[in-house]
Amino acid sequence: MLANRSRDTGPELALRSILHGRGYRYRVNYRPLRDKRNSADIVFTKAKVAVFVDGCYWHGCPEHYWPAKTNVHYWAPKIAANKERDELFNEALAERGWTVVRAWEHEAPEDVAERVALALRRL
């Protein structure tokens, strides 16, 4: 598990490159809520927009998640807990006025960048 990156993944870098090219400036791997340990992949602090690029396996993508064949008693609850944590953090952010953009690693970065731009324009 040491080889699994928590930041600067390929999909995240591709998205950041597109956003930066469009002139957006943001914080990377930033904690939008100081009293929570969770951090977002990309954060627009003034606009209060938090962007997450979720890995299909780690966050239980409905299209690409495949259950583990070994150590099932560990991985099934682990993935379920990740999904629950994501939901709770989304709710905490929304309660404090943040807009959350969640993307899967398999999504085209151009499409995700468009969703982020749309969220920023709405504000």
UniProtKB/TrEMBL annotation:
GO terms for biological process: mismatch repair. Keywords: DNA damage, DNA repair, Endonuclease, Hydrolase, Nuclease. The keyword DNA damage applies. CDD domains: Vsr. It comes from the Bacteria. GO terms for molecular function: endonuclease activity; hydrolase activity. Belongs to the Vsr family. This is Very short patch repair endonuclease.
